[in-house]
Amino acid sequence: MFYNLSPCSIMPKLRGSGGTPLLFFIFSLLSTLNGTNSAITDTNSNSSLHFKEAPQFYNSPSCSSINSSVNVAMTLDIAYLRGSMAAILSVLQHSSCPENIVFHFVSSSSAESTHLNFTITKSFPYLQFTIYPIQDVASVAGLISTSIRSALDCPLNYARNYLADLLPQQLQKVVYLDSDLVLVDDIAELAATPLTGDSVLAAPEYCNANFTTYFTPTFWSNPSLSLTFANRNRRPCYFNTGVMVIDLERWRAGDYTTKIVEWMELQKRMRIYELGSLPPFLLVFAGNIAPVDHSWNQHGLGGDNFHGLCRDLHPGPVSLLHWSGKGKPWARLDANRPCPLDGLWSPYDLLQTPYTIES
């Protein structure tokens, strides 16, 4: 799924440009010789997918200066590229100041990033973006414990832990987004969320969820561990890490990357949770999250269509639809087994199919 390259490769920083890398030219030529249809339909050849150019979006008259910039961080890889392209398009399409949006993409392979850089530039020629390396992917991989889903064990799934180190030091605040979502509202409203008190993160919280299920009996039976949530002023609630507003200055000042890594190291010694990269965030931040309206993360839409378990929207307004879970809308649409809400994702799909007629 990773372009037949190691996801632990270390890459140089790449900035968006209009040039065509030689590597991608050679790859495209080989793909053509192998046959376009087989390249499109082979689910193990996601790197051969081609995407349409998105429309250019312009600022409204109310966008006066660069001071209104919104910085968006996302991971970027071949396996989820189709979802990322749709997410980017949705952000731009619903923004009142799309020219002021700056994207910060984190990747994990230098050769893959060359292809990704070309693909993003080709579909979004005017996009402001930078691709950053995870400096030591092997070290990140060494901290990961196996989880209930193998897809959660990729080092890139843990990139959110290291944003404060990877992104420019002068960057104060960033909106982090997963690749399996689309926005239907102006991201500037989400970015303007106030991080009250000493909060480092803002996200929608779900306090009705059974918080104890995110950790093992080993965790709860150990008094020194379970006391993590004993603070009377800290009411721990579940929050989804796929949509967050992060104060990078406070993160750096509090050295929160180290705090997350310490929990991951403990997990390697004694299994205290089961679910990927989420529990360390809960251990460090739950109970001290600035509030965000639930409309900004209608999550869980991935469901599990194999058993017909399509999800409905949560009650209330919708600003962001998030296909977290096993089922991704592009895979279900391709398999002709979509869930009803997958039709809300398809208008943002930029995939160039073999039968598309260009005007």
From TrEMBL:
Pfam families xref list: Glyco_transf_8 (PF01501)
UniProt keywords, alphabetically: Glycosyltransferase, Signal, Transferase
Enzyme Commission identifier(s): 2.4.1.-
Topology with respect to the bilayer: Single-pass type II membrane protein
Signal peptide interval: 1-38
Protein name as annotated: Hexosyltransferase
InterPro entries listed in its UniProt record: Glyco_trans_8, Glycosyltrans_8_dom-fam, Nucleotide-diphossugar_trans
Family under the similarity heading: Belongs to the glycosyltransferase 8 family.
Location of this chain's protein in the cell: Membrane
Known pathway: Glycan metabolism; pectin biosynthesis
Chief subcellular location: membrane
